[in-house]
Amino acid sequence: xxxxxxxxxxxxxxxxxxxxxxxxxxxxxxxxxxxxxxxxxxxxxxxxxxxxxxxxxxxxxxxxxxxxxxxxxxxxxxxxxxxxxxxxxxxxxxxxxxxxxxxxxxxxxxxxxxxxxxxxxxxxxxxxxxxxxxxxxxxxxxxxxxxxxxxxxxxxxxxxxxxxxxxxxxxxxxxxxxxxxxxxxxxxxxxxxxxxxxxxxxxxxxxxxxxxxxxxxxxxxxxxxxxxxxxxxxxxxxxxxxxxxxxxxxxxxxxxxxxxxxxxxxxxxxxxxxxxxxxxxxxxxxxxxxxxxxxxxxxxxxxxxxxxxxxxxxxxxxxxxxxxxxxxxxxxxxxxxxxxxxxxxxx
Amino acid sequence: xxxxxxxxxxxxxxxxxxxxxxxxxxxxxxxxxxxxxxxxxxxxxxxxxxxxxxxxxxxxxxxxxxxxxxxxxxxxxxxxxxxxxxxxxxxxxxxxxxxxxxxxxxxxxxxxxxxxxxxxxxxxxxxxxxxxxxxxxxxxxxxxxxxxxxxxxxxxxxxxxxxxxxxxxxxxxxxxxxxxxxxxxxxxxxxxxxxxxxxxxxxxxxxxxxxxxxxxxxxxxxxxxxxxxxxxxxxxxxxxxxxxxxxxxxxxxxxxxxxxxxxxxxxxxxxxxxxxxxxxxxxxxxxx
Lengths: 347, 288
Hints:
Chain A has helices spanning 11-21, 94-108, 114-121, 140-143, 170-175, 186-199, 214-219, 226-233, 239-242, 290-309, 319-323, 330-344; strands at residues 4-7, 23-30, 33-38, 64-72, 77-79, 87-93, 123-128, 154-158, 162-167, 182-183, 250-256, 263-269. Chain A is of the alpha+beta class.
């Protein structure tokens, strides 16, 4: 397949064409930060963003979504929620792309989740290659997410005056019909190759060990004193899980109107860092201390999710590190465990 | 006679993409057991059956209040188109369920999880050790075993409650007590003036029991604090780790292995449990 080039001045046209058919989400500038938002004006889309507060997960697993509505609570009449629009998520970094692949696996394994899958099947992903580190917190290179060879419908790489477009799927190919693209010249192909190979040295490795050793390191770390130390610092605010692209735990609850008849059942993002998360009806809490909850969080990221879904549960985006008020970071925790093991024999 | 084919609720939910959408079920009868517990007999819509195994649970919905996981208390052998839930009034949803009477509707999803692998128990002696509300899920298996009694060896039931007024299924306890092929022992932590039976925590019942450890399956369910002490008694009798089964309580929100609330390390209790052998749980932190 030939390589397509989209000139930068033609991006707004492409987005405008997409908006005629799709709901488009992408990064926009908001109050000194960047956020994934619904794009209404093509000029809002900022493909040069470093990172966003929340990951694009919110288009697939919204912070709150309706599972069903009911008209009459006593008579038990329920109806499914309205159908979702066809969506294009534009400008997804590869760390977040890896996270979406994990979510796809989670929600399509075992009992397939009808809500996620319905939305996912109607969603196309246009990802973009990162060429410089977003800040000191990202550690994508260590986690193996600095690039991606699948999971996208279209993948863009900035080669100066335009974007080189890699087509990942047939749906992506059809999407290109909306884009005023041209075939790449030999010079542009060369520019793409140079861009991709020159980017790697710009990104630091931030884990002090190879990530393939992370699961076994965590395996040895169940009884590590590190968790108690984290527990003493952690404020149990759940900021880390709220901004995480791979966290998918949710709560299910009902909302009812003042007439006590009409309402809806919703699910919303929940957090294993909150006190009530593992508490049962009688009041017993299976992860009562913040130490146990932090351990659960990091074990999920580096071990449990891998065991269940064969993907690491952390993609190195650094959002939790940025969001944490007491500077608990995955890089800090994983490196601490590693160095304790190296020095003392025990993490 | 026209044979109507019943569809299982779980199959229906899966194939119709209705995993989160409860079906409307009708309450046939309500029997109060104690100040806190009532037994609800529930009928699914026509043409639908629960097809559960002992040890499985359902999610019960009260629209506008929410959903709660409740273990199924009746045995498949006595299904007769209905099933029973023993509900303790302990939160918003269970309080709302307690306000219901015959003819009222509630929502049901499930059944979820693995039940007890009771086919493997055949030919063995079975020691049940329920504590408190733990009798509710074990009653499903106890009655299944009693309804195919000849297939098992000894049946021992060691049941403990906090006080006489909290004993569940008293009529059924009497029925079991009268059977010669059931060895029933009941204890309460604290007796009252009417109590003539054994007094002491559930572990005190084990002293008077001898079992063949190589041929005994032990099954326990109760409040979290109870497990370690009961396990010590079972190990003391030499019962093998793989022959000890526990039914664990967790606050399952989805029942389909996604929401994370029932997660024990990498295991989702709603999928791999809530019934586990001790051998499966042994390496899991936070399980007990």
